[in-house]
Amino acid sequence: MPAALAVSSLHKRFRSRFGRTESVALDGVDLEVPRGEAFGLIGPNGAGKTTFIKCLLGIAHPDSGDIALLGGRPGDPRARARVGYLPERLALPGAWTARAFLASVGRLKGIVLERPAIDALLDRLGLTEAAGRRIRGFSKGMRQRLGLAAALLGSPELLVLDEPTDGVDPLGRVEIRQLLAAELSRGATLFINSHLLSETERICTRIGILSRGRLVRSGPLEVLTAVQQRWRARFAPGTPESPGLLLGLGFEPVEGGAWELAAADPTALNQALDRARTAGAQLVELERASRDLEDVLSEALAAGSA
Amino acid sequence: MKTGAVALDLLREAAARRWFLALGLALTALLLLLVTSLRLEVVDGALAATRLFGKPIFHDIRPADVALRPVFLVASQMVFWCGLCFGVLACADFAPALLSPGRIEHLLSLPVQRWELLLGTFVGVLTLAAGGAAYASGGLILVLGAKTGVWTGWPLISALLSALSFGGVYAGMLAVAVWVRSAALSAAAGASLIGLGLLATYRRTLLDVMGEGLGRALFAGVTALVPPLGKLADAAGALASSAPLAPGGVLRLILGTLAFAGGLLALAAWRFERRDF
Fold this sequence. Notes:
The structure holds 2 protein chains of 2 kinds.
Chain A: E1 5-15, E2 22-33, E3 38-42, H1 49-56, E4 64-69, H2 77-80, E5 83-86, H3 98-109, H4 115-124, H5 140-152, E6 158-162, H6 170-186, E7 189-193, H7 197-203, E8 206-211, E9 214-220, H8 221-225, E10 226-235, H9 243-248, E11 252-253, E12 259-262, H10 266-278, E13 283-290, H11 293-305
Parallel strand pairs in A: 3-7, 3-8, 5-6, 6-7
Antiparallel strand pairs in A: 1-2, 1-4, 8-9, 10-12, 10-13, 11-12
Helix pairs in contact in A: 3-4
Chain B: H1 3-15, H2 18-37, E1 38-43, E2 46-52, E3 55-58, E4 62-63, H3 64-91, H4 94-98, H5 104-109, H6 114-148, H7 154-179, H8 183-201, H9 203-209, H10 214-225, H11 229-240, H12 247-274
Antiparallel strand pairs in B: 1-2, 2-3, 2-4
């Protein structure tokens, strides 16, 4: 089965109206997103994230490079029929009701939607009471939910979401995360573009960092956030009797009462732990030391600009 | 093919716009005014007396169908020219709204071809124009038919010809909007096409008085392409009033307008397919 997304050597430049100036939006992006994954694309403003999404969906035409969208071409409506998309700033018809909007999107997707199916989808997004109301009276969060409902129509194999939780209150974000988790367990692939790093970290299992049109980091979240050759250990309270013993063995105290240790390989790690246990320490928790996504992004951007 | 779905959405959007609500209300009010204030006395198929707001307006006795011809002629001209002007103003925003940021991205991500979006918009506007013209003409047929017993379907055919003429103008407006997303420029293009259409009507006369040169060649070239709206309006009037008409001439006008609209739509589709959003 082909990857949900496979992009190679993607280039896109924008020229001013009279061709006087040119800006590089995408500069040779290579990326593959396996099916069933939750992929998060992060990067600073102007990095080319939205342009990348637009190229994926055939909204913008790349200058060069190849894109395979669920094995098809972005310009092929059959491929796009299997994709649900939430744009960054979705313009909704204010005079329509939520039901009428979803029915319209359904028609354009070629899906025959009965009213119960529309109502069930609106219920899933927490919009039951707003189903018959005109969209112009919706809050930003409600509009975002309605856009998400439109993206979910027809149970697409790939969901491309540009800032899905933008404008949604904290409680709503939890609900959307749960909903996206349900989509993932259904087998859908998620491609999320968000500037909210904590949200991305909570939803996505793979991350790509885009900077100045280049993909500067890409891979599983735990690998990107892992600090190579460093481990975090937690010992039972009061063990060993003197914390100075651990300091002498190369452990460094970190916040929350944990200790970090540099170990080049598993053998060195186990030897250090054995020495700690011999000194009376009782190990209760061990994990690879990690950073949050913000640190990873900062480091990647600094490396990219160097 | 999703053209129908796009056209349907446009009609739904139009239904929510004040312009079209106002047009519907104005036409209905006008027809109701005619129903209540126009008195026609028909004796043995002849119109014996006509009273508007209680005052007699025609005194000569004529066959009712003959007497109604000028009424249908004037009505068809009003539907034609007022419809064109109203359409240019009221429909100028449809294409720019379709291409607005946040909406076009969503539409293009759906399994719809770009040309289907464009054609659907055109079909929707054409349906709107035909519906409006047919409502005005059909209403008049009903009112006058009920009062005189003279029933004719020709004003409806005339209304369709008016809608087709607007189709030629709207194709130009749509093409401009695809290039530059601006309702004002789209309306300006429509107004310019109406002006050019009038000039094209008197093309031969104007060419006769123009001196040789680039200007004349340019004028000849442009007015050869633009549908002669004056001739189309005359044809619509002749159809509505059951006046004699050369079928070949009308057919040529219709085919010319269709070719003009088709050419502009093809140009718009070519540009639309290549545009980034």
